[in-house]
């Protein structure tokens, strides 16, 4: 049978569109949603763990980035902070890393485009807003996503934990057990 003029071209256009769609879907399905969760983690608290656990429901993989400034003092060294984070987390969709450079550069170097941050009280908002805006100004391809902290962890911060522990207060239940042990080694046993 003689083919009608124009039929072949419609058929091959459909084939090409089908191929393009399949290859787009293949790439999309293969592309992992990776988020970077940066912080000082000096030390990691249960509030951080809550954000990581909930973040993992939204992202295929998370990189917990211990960001450090060599000119700033900290209670735990970068290596200790990374070890504590690693020990307190399980699962192969979480990676722990460190960096002293620009956050957005780190995020792009990992092929990611999301920074995840937790928001506690209103007082966090101004600082977080400024940071999200400067990061956006530095790289428009990187978005900051916020998760509201769980209400149990509303007042939990690494700084308050360190202060309470250094004055003999108990921080049991606010930090992972291993962190509590390390704090007690440094500051002595707390009053329960
Ligand atoms: O747990 P923190 O201390 O609130 O975390 C703050 C942190 C580490 C996320 C922030 O200081 C940071 O992003 N540092 C990396 C340097 C950087 O890129 N700063 C923002 C643009 S100037």
Binned, the helix content reads 40-55%
* Beta-strand percent range: 15-25%
**Radius of gyration (Å):** 23 Å
Q: How many strands in all?
A: 5
Secondary-structure element pattern, one letter each: HEHEHEHEHEHH
Rough outline: elongated
- Give the CATH topology of the domain at 34-154: Rossmann fold
Structural class: alpha/beta
Span of the ends, CA to CA = 91 Å
Average per-residue pLDDT, rounded, comes to 91
Total of DSSP H or I helical runs spanning 4+ residues: 7
Poorly predicted ranges: none
Ligands bound, unique: 4'-phosphopantetheine
CATH homologous superfamily identity of the domain at 34-154: HUPs
> Architecture of the domain at 34-154, according to CATH?
3-Layer(aba) Sandwich
Strands across the major sheet, in which order?
3-2-1-4-5
CATH class category label of the domain at 34-154: Alpha Beta
Main sheet overview: 5 strands, parallel
Could you walk me through the main structural features you see in this protein, from its secondary elements to its overall organization?
46% of the residues lie in helices and 16% in strands. It is α/β, with parallel strands linked by helices and 192 residues long. The chain starts with 6 loop residues before the first helix and ends in a 5-residue tail after the last helix. It has a domain at 34-154: Rossmann fold (3-Layer(aba) Sandwich), CATH 3.40.50. It has a five-stranded parallel β-sheet with strand order 3-2-1-4-5, sandwiched between helices. The chain has helices at residues 7-30, 46-55, 78-88, 103-109, 122-138, 158-166, 177-187, and strands at residues 34-39, 61-67, 94-99, 114-119, 143-148. The radius of gyration is 23 Å and the shape is elongated. The model has no long low-confidence stretch (mean pLDDT 91). The structure holds 4'-phosphopantetheine. The site of 4'-phosphopantetheine has 9 residues, from strand 1 and helix 5.
């Amino acid at each position: 049978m003689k083919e009608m003029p124009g039929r072949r071209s419609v058929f091959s256009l459909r084939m090409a569109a089908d191929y393009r769609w399949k290859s787009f879907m293949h790439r999309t399905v293969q592309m992992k949603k990776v988020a970077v969760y940066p912080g000082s983690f000096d030390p990691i608290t249960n509030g951080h763990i809550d954000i990581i656990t909930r973040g993992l429901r939204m992202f295929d993989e998370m990189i917990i980035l211990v960001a450090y400034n060599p000119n700033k003092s900290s209670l735990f060294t970068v290596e200790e902070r990374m070890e504590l984070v690693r020990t307190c987390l399980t699962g192969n969709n979480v990676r722990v890393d460190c960096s002293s450079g620009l956050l957005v550069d780190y995020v792009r170097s990992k092929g990611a485009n999301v920074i995840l941050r937790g928001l506690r009280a209103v007082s966090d908002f101004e600082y977080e807003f400024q940071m999200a805006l400067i990061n956006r100004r530095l790289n428009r391809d990187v978005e900051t996503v916020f998760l509201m902290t769980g209400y149990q962890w509303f007042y939990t911060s690494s700084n308050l934990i360190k202060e309470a522990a250094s004055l003999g207060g108990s921080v049991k239940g606010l930090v992972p057990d291993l962190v509590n042990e390390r704090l007690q080694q440094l500051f002595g046993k707390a009053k329960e």
